[in-house]
TrEMBL record:
GO MF entries: glucose 1-dehydrogenase [NAD(P)+] activity
Ranges in coiled-coil conformation: none
Family label: Belongs to the short-chain dehydrogenases/reductases (SDR) family.
EC class: oxidoreductase
Organism this protein belongs to: Streptomyces nodosus
Keywords from the named record: Oxidoreductase
Enzyme Commission (EC) number: 1.1.1.47
Record's protein name: Glucose 1-dehydrogenase
InterPro entries, alphabetized: NAD(P)-bd_dom_sf, Sc_DH/Rdtase_CS, SDR_fam
Keyword Oxidoreductase applies: yes
Keyword Thylakoid annotated: no
Taxon lineage: Bacteria, Bacillati, Actinomycetota, Actinomycetes, Kitasatosporales
Amino acid sequence: MVDSLLAGKSALITGAAQGIGAAIAQLFAAQGAKVVVADINEDGGKETAATITKGGGKAQFVRADVTSAADLEAAVRATVAAYGRLDVAINNAGIEEQGGAPLHELTEETWDRLVSVNLKGVWLSMKAEITQMLAQGGGTIVNMASIAGMVGLPLGIADYSAAKGGVVALTRTAAIEYVKQSIRINAVCPGVVRTALLDQAIKAGMFTEAEAATLHPTGVLINPEDIAHTFLYLASDVSKHVTGHALPVDAGMAAG
């Protein structure tokens, strides 16, 4: 295999049943990684794993709710049991607003659910992953953040922005805490990506597809595969000196 950047490495990827997570899992497998697909969506997760194995890659599915510490610890154990260690962890699982609302109209229930999945879920994932990586002598973690966690956007997503901003801060702090234990930790901050979640937001009336595209200075939406390649860079040894970084993949949004 040419340019097998993850040859021989094991990778646990949360939220890999669809969208960006599925694209990451498939790209990692194509680059030689042995993949564990983790998701609460069993049908989609099994489909991602099956697609990888049919293509000649190595993958298995494990059901995991990222709001459950027990599920995440079990997912890490499953990865180690299958492949011997946990080299790479991709904490991608997350949810988005369905319709959006100004900050003062957000319900406590909506806030708690979104923050629980998007921020607490990353923290719980990292707890389980770092424990294993400390025991084995190192590893690499890449978290899914968002450009909404770096700049203000008037889209009725205060809770989403706060959670993703928390992921950025958590990533930077954890990177410093564990850098001397050979654990690299980074985050990716996408702009507006063509996913099923974007389709749901459009159907909910948050914006049209054309309006979503104009959020980028380029006027073009980003594909999941483009984001997956950024995760590949940060997960591989090509970026061995990069840690504590939140990398925008936003077609220039943050530059404005």
